[in-house]
Amino acid sequence: MSEAPILKDTNRSTGRDALQKNIQAALALSGAIRSTLGPRGLDKLLIDDDGRVLVTNDGVTVLETAKVEHPVAKMMINASSTQDRIAKDGTTTTVVLAGEMLQNAWELILQGIHPATIARGFRNAEQFVLSSIEQFAISGNEDLFYQVISTSLSGKGHTSMQNRITELSLEAVKILDTTKQQEFIDSSKIKIISQTGGQIEESYLVQGLALPKKRMSSDMPKEINDGKILLIDGGLEFRSMATDVKLNVTSTGVFNSFRKKELQLLQKKAEKIKQLGVNVVACREGIDDSVKKILVESGIQAYRRVAKSDLNLLAKACNGILVNRIEDAGQKDLGNFESSNNISADGKDLWVLSSTGCGVTIVAKGSTVDVVGEVERCLDDALGVAIQLYENNQILCGGGATYVALARALRRFAESVPGREQLAIEAFADAIEVVVRILAENAGQDPIACLLDVVAQQANLNSAHIGINLSTGKSADMKELGVLEPMSIVKQAIIGATEVSISVLRIDDVLWAKQDVEIPDLAE
Ligand code: ADP
Ligand code: MG
């Protein structure tokens, strides 16, 4: 039968041919970033469309910058982005795991095993891993949390930067945890202010919501305790003319009366603010001098040109509501605070507002814009890891230890599974051991020897803590070395990688509309 007319302008590949092309695309992608895995991983130099340059060894950053067309490669990148969103770490691991799973699956397909059988075996293996991973976990305390965050920062920046970021993120999350009003820790209650100039080590934490702002006039009170705040999503100044308004001014009197009317309106707004019993005012736009005078006389602290995003943070911190029309503002819109203070830190002005559970601010410092950017990115990841640890304190050994322990358990489990699925479970076990091999490879060690050493030592000592010491190329106890990871990251990496592999295995028909999609050529 001839091809349906509807597919006339479509490129089509089916069956094994489609699968082979898809797996090739996945392997091209994982091959491109495997050299960045681990603390000894190398960096990639990325240049975007606008010629901006970024040096990074962060898997998800590399992938999201790459211009990739192939749909399967896009699926891998999505898995890595999801990992970044949910777990903040383990993004490279997810992609290399998926690559290895598909590579092993392909070998089984060549032996005549149906992709659907392999997919079933992989799902089975994943379920086994997720139900048995907890037996390898250690319950963490603050000291161990410190080591976990340090591990996740290894390979990024220098040691003293990693230490300071680890300290700050732990301190911030600890405060949020003890003052939280809901079940979960709200990461949006951490504000990061970046300042160029100074050393990374001089970065510091302020309790409360701090903004790089100064009150409008030094005649306003410097500090106010237990008060109410009004957040205005607009301004208290003369409105600028809309461009298409034409004023026919026949005499100066017309213009003056026009201004007078505006002034009266502004003063009415200021009086309204006074009546509401507000102590602090924050405006998105400007505040006119005439209004300022009234505010000063009333002992009100005022801030102008506060960014909308900061107004939203203020609203959250004080339980206030942003108002557009001051005329309609009422008591219900006002937020409450414990203190609103103007401080000066290292010659920079900060407005610090505190109330119960209002969050913390980290002032990130670095010598140049690029350095501060890197500090911010690392802080963001470290905070993400710290939050996960406070929410679930289960920790696993890194350096490939947990993956080898899981693989050993999986092989024993596979023996109990009849039929060809058993082979798929074994292939899954081989695939997750790739972490040790790549870590060793990137550290200039022999990957096979390292893997065999780790497997043998785990069996001899009956310990799931044995992983690879990258300095010596020998197996070592990762708990003693302080190479630790949150359980949630390992779990999520395995879930993400299995999901992509199964999706790819289930595709047996690829229909491309007209354009020819190339396999990405990302090899180093
Ligand atoms: P990802 O993007 O997947 O987080 P990384 O480049 O951050 O990739 O590497 C993480 C891997 O490096 C983890 O498997 C972790 O256990 C391992 N790792 C980190 N520090 C060490 C170390 N000092 N020794 C051995 N392995 C380490
Ligand atoms: Mg990492």
Explain what you see.
α3 (71-87) packs across α4, α3 packs antiparallel against α17 (487-505) and α12 packs antiparallel against α13. The longest helix is centred in the middle third of the chain and has 24 residues, at 252-275. With 524 residues, this protein is an alpha+beta fold. 48% of the residues lie in helices and 18% in strands. The mean pLDDT is 88. The site of magnesium ion has 2 residues, from loops. Magnesium ion is lined by residues 89, 152.
SSE arrangement:
Elements: E1 10-14, H1 15-33, E2 44-47, E3 53-56, H2 59-65, H3 71-87, H4 91-110, H5 115-132, E4 138-139, H6 142-153, H7 159-179, E5 190-196, E6 204-207, E7 209-211, E8 223-232, H8 252-275, E9 280-283, H9 289-297, E10 301-303, H10 308-318, E11 322-323, E12 335-345, E13 348-354, E14 360-366, H11 369-391, E15 394-397, H12 401-414, H13 421-432, H14 434-442, H15 447-461, E16 466-469, E17 474-477, H16 478-481, E18 484-486, H17 487-505, E19 509-513
Parallel strand pairs: 5-14, 8-9, 8-11, 9-10
Antiparallel strand pairs: 1-19, 2-3, 4-15, 6-14, 7-13, 8-12, 12-13, 15-18, 16-17
Helix pairs in contact: 1-3, 1-4, 2-3, 3-4, 3-17, 4-13, 4-17, 5-12, 5-13, 5-17, 6-7, 6-11, 7-11, 8-9, 12-13, 12-15, 14-15
